[in-house]
Amino acid sequence: SAAREGTRTDVLVVGAGFAGLAALAMLHREGFDVVGVEREHEVGGTWYVNRYPGLRCDVESMHYSYSWDDDLQQEWTWSERYASQPEILSYARHVVDRFDLRRDIRFDTAVTALRFDPVHDRWAATLSDGSTVDAQWVVLATGALSTPKPIDIPGAEEFRGEVLHTAEWPHEPVSFAGKRVAVIGTGSSGIQVATEIAKDAEHLYVLQRTPSYSMPARNRPLTPDEVARWKARYPDIREAGRHSLDGLASPMTGKNAFEVDEHERRARYEEIYRAGLPFAFFGVFDDVLVDDDANRSVEEFLAEKIRERVDDPALAEKLIPSGAPFGTRRSCLDSGYYEIFNQRNVTLVALRESPIVSITPRGIDTTRESLTVDAIVYATGYDAFTGTPTAIDIVGAEGATLAETWADGARSYLGLMVAGFPNLFLVTGPQSPSVLSNVIVSIEQHVEWITRALADARRDGVVRMEATRDAEQEWVDHTRAVAESTVYRDASSWYVGANVAGKPRVVLPYVGGVGGFRERCEEVAADGYRGFARRVRELA
Ligand code: NA7
């Protein structure tokens, strides 16, 4: 509409997922004028577009929720230990309504271009409906896993049956009863969706290139008592999470794996496994993510568990990961995944032994066989961290696009800003802990920091803020050094961009933990935003 053309605002927030909603709410509370833009029809981000059967979060629901408003956390009640997608989406809707954020958001609208105007120190945004927004600040709350990786299998467009992607699931229910189905991919999405499809499909082929470690979620309804106990301790639980390695404050022994005897080591692993807490393996011993032998002790434990769950020993071996250290590929939570391979209607297709040659009109040809299927479900993952921001035509202060700036690998200062792109903030950006933590804790920390930076800028008359090249380089070097000192040096997953052809290898998440990262961010802010150039408005 005409009224919308040329909107002027303090802050443009791109995306209305969990990061965008937090940004809208906190900036609002701080008195900023905010415009939110969301390409989908509803809030929720990944929890809106991902709606495949079996989808659950791998962080416990009591942790996977905002902590910045005590009334909110006290009044909302999760029904299950690990929330399903519909319940997480209801929570996002509840938040948007409770804080009256909906009227600030333009739905079904994408930001297609962002141009920085160095004369006025403002961003000009072009939206997909042709309108424009002129904003002093931009917050890219576009998610770390929000652009599916392009389908890179020859012949994919030839297939005449039903085609589904876990990240673009239809709104109408999909029935697999009586169908022959192929699921391609065995990351979190593939494992969850295959487990559900195995219940109805006439036949399910699980096409596995790289196996993941998975463990039972032990999901169950939460009892009113345990919810009440948890809520009573919420302030302490949240505070502990904020200063921990993983945002969850999973218990840590403070010892190295081989400082304890085998009996005790196993007992610890059993405890974590029985509790269904995948993140707890990372810090149970100080050296699990650092020392190869310590790491292998977790792998051996989990491999044994897989062997216990699969009847056919030869098949079990194919389902056990090898090659990349535990933790360098996302470990998964499942609700009966390995057991589906004991069913007669499920076949594992090990692509390491027989790679896909091409997709055909009727199915999938591997080097060994032709599979005829009615439906193909792609669970092939994302162009993580960089896919969504580089799809927007963003031109910074010196005329370079963000895509050009990141051509040799994504870089940022503290995951928050990119040198050359003043007044543009990222949430869960590259080199922030984000996906290696309870992402809600990371989101809150980033958004709180950004909100305070903007409030301080307003107070100080700062109109332009940007990361210096030196500070950015130092942070990139630091994050690389931290990664090199851990098993992440041997990662070959989307954590390092290895899943997308031609993507430069950079350790994308900061592996040093959320607590240390928070401290660093606090220090920087307290030290006059060290490493950021802040320019004060010139008075005429
Ligand atoms: P992931 O974890 O990236 O998994 C994608 C899977 O798809 C993985 O097993 C890939 O195997 C497989 N894949 C990708 N392309 C192909 C081709 N061409 N052929 C065969 N197999 C392929 O994505 P998810 O959606 O499961 O999970 C993403 C995150 O969302 C997850 O970590 C949670 O944080 C939530 P590969 O490893 O490349 O051999």
From TrEMBL:
Cofactor or coenzyme needed: FAD
Organism: Microbacterium betulae
Protein name according to UniProt: NAD(P)/FAD-dependent oxidoreductase
Transmembrane portions of the chain: 11-28
Family statement drawn from the similarity comment of this UniProt entry: Belongs to the FAD-binding monooxygenase family.
UniProt xrefs under InterPro entries: FAD-binding_Monooxygenases, FAD/NAD-bd_sf, Flavin_mOase-like
Gene Ontology MF: a single term: flavin adenine dinucleotide binding
Pfam families assigned to the protein according to its UniProt record, in alphabetical order: FMO-like
Keyword set, alphabetical order: FAD, Flavoprotein, Membrane, Monooxygenase, NADP, Oxidoreductase, Transmembrane, Transmembrane helix
SUPFAM superfamilies associated with the record: FAD/NAD(P)-binding domain (SSF51905)
